[in-house]
Structure formats: C-alpha cells, structure tokens
Automatic annotation (TrEMBL):
This is Na(+)/H(+) antiporter NhaA. It comes from Lysobacter korlensis. It is a multi-pass membrane protein. The keyword Transmembrane applies. It comes from the Bacteria.
C-alpha cells in the first residue's frame, strides 16, 4: 500500500479512472454503466435513498475532505500557514485564483440561469497538481511544493465555504444544531481517549457517522461533516489517521469519484453548439488560474517586501499558477452541484473540467520544465575564480 502514498501514482490513478469512464460511457457498455451509477441503494426506514453515484459524492468524498481538513489544520499549526507572514503569499494567491476565474466565467456566461456554475473553475486539485509537480519538477526547490500545497489547501477551504454557502438547499436548522455537539464530542474524545486503534474505531467512527448523518439531514452538503471532523481531531490522532487513510483516498476514493463523475456521453452537437458554460470553464481553469494566482503572488510579493520577506521568484510563481489550474476533483463536484437539474449542461461542464484541467496540466508541465532547467543550469554553472593579485 505504500506506493499509493505517491503523489505521482495518485495523479495517474485519477486521470486513468476518468479516461476509462469516458471510454465506457461512450462505448457499448455505456447504458449499463450509467444505469449502475443511477441505481438506488436505500437504507430501510430512513430518508437515505441515494444513487450509487450520490453515495460516492456525499459519502466517500466526505473522507477526502476529512483528510484535506487534517492537512489544513497541520499547515495552520506546524506548516506553511502557521504564521500570518507565511500565510500571506499563498492566501493572496489563492484568493486571486478564485476571483479571476470566477470573473472570467461570469463575463463569458451571460445567461442568469447558467451563472450558478461560477465556482467550477475556482478549485485546485491537490492530488493532481502535486502529482504533476512530483513527476516533472524534482529539481525545483522544496519551497515550490510547499507553496503549491499551501495554496491548494487554502483553495480547498474556500471551496468548502462556497459549497456550504451557495449549494445548501432547504436548510434544516435542527439537525445542524444537533451535529455541533457531536463534532465537539468527536474532537474532545480524540484528545482524551486512550487505547489502540480498535478503541478509536469503536468510539470515534460511530460519532463521525452520526455527524455525517445529521449534516446530510440538515441540507448542507454532507462533505462539510468531514471537514468539521478533520479540523477538531487532535493532532496526535489526526496524523496517524491520515497516514492510514491516505492510500485508500488515493487508490480508491478519488479514482472511484473520478470514474462516476466522468461517466458521461459526449454531446451530439457541433463545436459551435456547445454551451457558453463549456467554453467559460475551458478558458477559466487554465487562463483564469494562471492570471489570478500569478497576480496574487506578485501583489503578495510587494507586501512581503515591505515586511522584509523575500518575494517568490516570478518563474516559481508561474509554475505554481500553471499547476493551480488543474481543477478536476473539486471542480467536478462543483459542476455536479451547480447543474444538478440540467443534465445537458452538467455533461458539457464535466467535459470542460477535464479538458481545462488537461490544458492546465500541459501548461504547468511546460512551465515546470522551463523553470527546472533554469535551476539545473545555475547548479552546474561553475563559479568564476577570483583573479590573483
């Protein structure tokens, strides 16, 4: 299972699962595969009657967000975000990487009925972006990976807030109120509970499931439960928990989600008939992220200079911005939530996310290779000998 911790392996599995899904959906087995995804699995005597695809989106993906929240908490306490000075650059860059793509999307999509998709190009896929960097950016300094990770974590936090604020329907306050003490109990017990893994599973797992159930019943997207649990979990428990679950997230949860999200049929329309949503996502992900993140880093660099901190080299900023346009996982989730009632636009949105992320990946790889060669040349350039006097 150790190989599943590799960022490169995680990226390949994500891309492979999406590619396989597209091939199946547009082949002879397509109807059967879509029927399987739409098949309902209900819990007798409960309001839980979801399709298999929705169990993946609402259930399995909550585990992914749980791990993302653990990583966010670690960065806030021990990592690249543990001081305001450290957090300045990735925070301003992440905000730029949200505002600019969203603005481009709204400029290109003028129909108010379709503008709910503005959050789709604002996300950065942690696993995919770091996987590409690990594949082609080995010679880059460690600060590039650290900044990309910090930016992606902040980006995920913003995505979580967007999901909670804009994709909550029919809010039921009582279950949400009841979920709060459950989450608090989860956090307190994770700090005070003694015993091995069996004891933790016996006590914390039921509390986690109960929190997920209550958040689901509240109308808030159930993945928010994973975020809350990850943020309150004691660090001493969170680190080994993340270590244990990471291979399952990389090797199963994310590929399964990518498979079901990409299980779409290519629309039988000409290029000119594609929705403005398609073109807005394809442009906003690679171009909007590149402009927004780079601009944010330049602005943050000027602020950092005033605070006597070294700004991020422009070449490094371009690498991070290029890779930051790989939306994929969270963008696919946003697309599903934004166009839940419009299957035709949702299909085009899914294809646009994959195409836009692919363009961003190619752009990011090119920028990474150029910057890596610059560092390699500097490393092998012999210093000039001083002249004898």
């Amino acid at each position: 299972m150790a190989f599943l911790r590799s960022e490169r392996v995680a990226a390949f599995l994500l891309l492979g699962a999406a590619a396989v899904a597209l091939l199946i959906a547009n082949g002879p087995a397509g109807p059967a595969a879509r029927d399987f995804a739409d098949a309902h699995l209900g819990v007798p005597g409960s309001p839980f009657d979801l399709s298999i695809a929705h169990w993946v989106t609402d259930g399995l993906l909550a585990i992914f967000f749980f791990l993302a929240a653990i990583e966010l908490k670690h960065e806030l306490t021990h990592g690249e975000l543990n001081t305001p000075q450290k957090a300045l650059v990735p925070t301003v860059a992440a905000i730029g990487g949200v505002v600019v793509p969203a603005g481009i999307f709204l400029l290109m999509v003028r129909d108010p009925a379709l503008q709910d998709g503005w959050p789709i190009p604002t996300a950065t896929d942690i696993a995919f972006a770091l996987g590409v960097l690990a594949l082609v950016g080995k010679s880059l300094p460690g600060r590039v990976r650290a900044l990309l990770l910090a930016l992606a974590v902040i980006d995920d936090l913003i995505a979580i807030l967007i999901i909670a604020a804009f994709f909550t329907s029919d809010l039921q306050p009582l279950p949400l109120i009841l979920a709060a003490p459950v989450v608090v109990a989860f956090g307190l017990l994770s700090k005070r509970l003694r015993g091995g893994r069996g004891m933790l599973l016996a006590v914390l797992l039921p509390l986690g499931v109960l929190a997920w159930v209550l958040v689901f019943l509240s109308g808030v997207h159930a993945t928010i439960a994973g975020v809350a649990l990850g943020l309150v979990m004691a660090g001493s428990r969170a680190t080994p928990t993340r270590h244990a679950l990471e291979p399952w997230s990389n090797g199963l949860i994310l590929p399964v989600f990518a498979f079901f999200a990409a299980l779409v049929v290519f629309p039988a329309v000409s290029v000119g008939q594609l929705s403005p949503v398609f073109w807005a996502i394809v442009v906003s992900l690679p171009v909007g992220k590149l402009l927004g993140i780079t601009g944010g880093m330049v602005l943050a660099g000027r602020l950092a200079a005033r605070a006597s901190r070294q700004p991020v080299p422009f070449g490094d900023a371009l690498v991070i911005a290029g890779l930051g346009g790989i939306g994929f996982t969270v963008s696919l989730l946003m697309n599903e939530l934004a166009y839940a009632g419009n299957d035709e636009v949702a299909v085009e949105g899914t294809l646009a996310v994959m195409l836009g992320s692919l363009i961003a990946a190619v752009l990011g790889i090119a920028l990474t290779l150029v910057q890596a060669r610059r560092y390699a040349r500097r490393a092998f350039t012999p210093s000039r000998p001083t002249s004898a006097r």
